[in-house]
Amino acid sequence: MATTAGGNKGGKGEKRQKTIVFLHPDLGIGGAERLVVDAAVGLQKRGCKVVIFTSHCDPGHCFDEARDGTLDVRVRGNTLIPPSILGRFSILCAILRQLHLILSITIFSSELSDISPTGFFVDQLSAGLPLLSLLRPQTPIFFYCHFPDLLLVQNRNSSLFKRLYRIPFDALERWSMGFATSTAVNSGFTKSIVAKTWPSYPAEKLKIVYPCINTSLPAQKEETEPIKWGQSERSIILSINRFERKKNIALAIQAFALLAEETRAKSKLVIAGGYDQRVHENVSYHADLVQLCEKLGLKSATVKTVVSALNSSIENVDVLFLLSVPNALKEILLKSAKLLAYTPKDEHFGIVPLEAMLRGVPVLATDSGGPLETVVEGRTGWLRPGEPGQWKEVMERVVEKMGEDELREMGEQGKRRVRDNFAETEMAKQLEEIFEEMEGAESKAAALLGLGLVVFAVVMGVLGVGVGMWLVRTPVERL
Question: 376 is in which domain, residue-wise?
Answer without folding.
Answer: 220-418
